[in-house]
Amino acid sequence: MLDRIVTGVGGAESEARAVAEAYAASGAAIPGFGHPIHKPDDPRAVRLLALADDLGHGGKHIAALRGTTRPWI
Description:
Elements lengths: L1 H6 L4 H15 L16 H12 L5 H9 L5
């Protein structure tokens, strides 16, 4: 899913929208997003993304995640 977003010919924003719309149309949950207990944000995900930044691994896939989730994550 993230590869499609970062490599799509329509640009990351367009591809992310297309992915989200496809999941919405099918009624399926987007894998890895949302948690039944931790709402609105899973603190584990927030920490993992911070670690990726701290260790210099915040590449295009992390940027795609941030573009499709809350901006402060």
